[in-house]
Design brief:
about 425 residues, Rossmann fold, 15 helices, DUF4143, AAA_14
């Protein structure tokens, strides 16, 4: 199929504005209860995030909003870049759009661009060539590998990550209630304590939502289906991840062995050497390479040891999936069963706490002391110990911080015992996009 044919097929609103409502992503949003549409960004943006998190849905609902505001249909261009091989294809695509369809400014949506070879070079050429003059440009991808280096120097393209819904967003949207308590700074223990008291009447509802969050996670697509999303979306998510690995030239066998070892060691300290030794991989450098890759694909979050306010990159690490749904998918992929057993919940909720902290604060890690006593997470000298069941002040082996339990609450001068659901709600901000 020629590029012009692909353009026409992917932009049916050029012929009939109402065709936007026939789009699969748009139909799912409009039929969902509650309906959740993310407001369009007013700045050109490079949006990266895990597969199935809702990046394409965001683009399509933004297009719907623009059409409903009366924007000329041919000034809105969407293209899924999976079929493009390299920067030459990308440049040819925009050249044909500008010469044949729309010579003026408008709105450009380029979905899954980051696997196009030298996409950033092609995009820079298009900026320099004036193809994006008087236009807002939205570019998405599933990998942040190329963002480690400056990709578009001097260009007005905000870099953001689009991550699974945090617990606050999940509760406010799907439990239909905003509690009118703002996000709290974990470093301001007195302020967080005051806000926690305001949430006590809602503890039952928050705990109910937390159990649902552990099952569904914050992957946007999972919240459109009834029942257990694992059964309807497992193949979709798994195949998307394996497709990304193939595009990056990675070995599925190595990836699968590493993921299975991470699950077997979930919540425990582990090293690349340990993974290499306990699998058929053998090389710790190969393990390190694949761990970096899965971080860049937003599947895993790696926490390093904090020693004297410094990060020890050579010590053991703690590794968690970025979302409970991803954990369940990868468990089924490696072990054939994705149900979460009761004994797994404390480790999975520990990962949820770590992910929420890592999104809001730089330099989040963990620490441990002689005798094997560990502190699950450390944020700028504040310790966070995750207990899930019961807990007390002695559970935290640091001078100040939080002990997170299922439903207990106690306040001391430098330590606070809090229910997990209240803590997660308070440390979460109301946002989808996180600047890189």
């Amino acid at each position: 199929m020629s590029l012009i044919s692909q353009m026409s097929f992917q932009n049916p609103w050029w012929i009939d504005v109402k065709r936007i409502y026939d789009d699969d992503q748009v139909r799912k949003v409009l039929s969902s209860n509650p309906r959740f549409v993310i407001p369009p960004s007013e700045q050109s943006a490079l949006i990266v995030g895990p597969r199935q998190v809702g990046k394409t849905t965001y683009m399509k609902t933004t297009i719907m909003s623009l059409l409903e505001k009366g924007v000329e249909p041919k000034k809105i261009f969407f293209f899924s870049c999976d079929s493009l091989k390299d920067k030459e294809d990308l440049i040819s695509l925009l050249s044909q759009y500008r010469s044949l369809i729309n010579q003026e400014g408008g709105f450009i949506f380029l979905d899954e661009i980051t696997f196009v070879r030298e996409w950033n070079v092609g995009l820079l050429h298009l900026f320099n060539g004036g193809y994006f003059k008087d236009s807002l440009v939205y570019v998405s991808g599933s990998s942040s590998v190329s963002l480690k280096k400056e990709t578009l120097p001097g260009r007005p393209l905000m870099k953001v990550s689009f991550l699974p819904l945090n617990f606050r967003m999940f509760f406010d949207i799907f439990f239909k209630k905003s509690l009118n308590v703002g996000a709290s700074n974990v470093l301001d223990m007195k302020g967080l304590q005051a806000n926690a008291m305001k949430l006590v009447p809602y503890l039952g509802e928050l705990n109910k939502a937390l159990f649902e969050y552990l099952k569904r996670g914050g992957i946007f697509a999972t919240n459109y289906v009834d029942g257990d999303p694992l059964y309807s979306l497992y193949e979709t998510y798994k195949d998307a991840v394996l497709s990304d690995l193939a595009k990056l030239g990675k070995d599925e066998r190595i990836f699968k062995e590493i993921v299975e070892k991470v699950i077997d060691s979930y919540g425990s300290r582990i090293s690349e050497n340990t993974i290499a030794r306990d699998t058929s991989i053998g090389s710790h450098s190969t393990v390190s390479n694949y761990l970096d890759l899965t971080e860049n694909l937003f599947m895993l979050r790696v926490f390093r040891k904090i020693e004297g306010n410094k990060v020890n990159n050579k010590s053991f690490k703690k590794i968690y999936f970025t979302d409970p749904f991803i954990y369940r998918v990868m468990k089924r992929y490696t072990k054939g069963l994705g149900d979460m057993e009761e004994g797994e919940i404390p480790h999975v909720i520990e990962g949820v706490v770590g992910e929420h902290l890592a999104r809001e604060y730089n330099g989040v890690g963990y620490t441990f002391f002689k005798g094997g006593r560990e502190v699950d997470f450390v944020v700028q000298g504040i310790g966070i110990e995750v207990k899930w069941g019961k807990g007390n002040f002695t559970d935290l082996r640091m001078e100040k911080g939080y002990i997170l339990t299922f439903d207990e609450m106690e306040f001391g001068d430098k330590k606070i015992v809090l229910p997990l659901s209240i803590f997660l709600y308070l440390v979460s901000s109301k946002k989808i996009f996180y600047e890189l």
